[in-house]
Amino acid sequence: MKSKRGFTLVEIMIVLAIVMTLATLVVSSVLRARHNANEMAAVAACKTVVTACQTFYANTLPHTYPLDLSYLIGPISNPPYIDSVLANGTKQGYSFTYTFIDTESFILNSDPIVPGKTGTRHFFVNESGIIKANHDSQASSADPAVE
Fold first, then answer.
1. Model-level pTM?
2. Tens digit of pLDDT for each residue in 111-146?
């Protein structure tokens, strides 16, 4: 009697089920890591804008904050305080909205371009440099600080 070698259909189906489960876990982990990286990049960009605005304020006489983000790149600021991508108002899945209040104050809101996909939290920062976050809607000064 000859012995047949090979895998049964049931064995192949079990292996496929295991491979599919592992692939699902890996893909969801990668998406979550990208989501978290976008949020951390948004926080870093907020810090960068605050530092750039403070430097602009210190170097401008009479002292004033920039009217918009384009004032933080050349030729107005030489060398530029921020990169041109951030000055255009978007970076790594987030949009940035800078609002000049007066010569002594400004606000910056950072919101995910696709909420739930590119980021979950919305961020707010003003001239104080304290970054606030909100999970549900645009952040404001009333929201808790990011730790």
1. 0.80
2. 999 998 899 999 999 999 999 999 999 999 999 999
pLDDT of residue 2: 66
DSSP 144: P
DSSP string computed for 57-80: HHHSSS----SSGGGGSTTTSSS-
Domain boundaries, the chain: 11-134
| Distances from the Cα of 93 to the Cα of 27, 107, 110, 121, 130, angstroms | 19, 20, 10, 12, 22
Q: How far apart are CA 116 and CA 29, in angstroms?
A: 15
Q: Which amino acid is at 26?
A: V
Q: Which residues pair with 105 in a beta bridge?
A: 102
φ, ψ for residue 6, nearest 5 deg: 145, -175
- Helix (H) or strand (E) holding 105, with range, is strand 105-112
- Per-residue tokens: 46: 């907020």
Query: SS3 of 101, please?
Result: strand
User: Do 119 and 139 contact (CB within 8 A), yes or no?
Assistant: no
Q: ∠ CA(130), CA(134), CA(137), 5° rounding?
A: 130
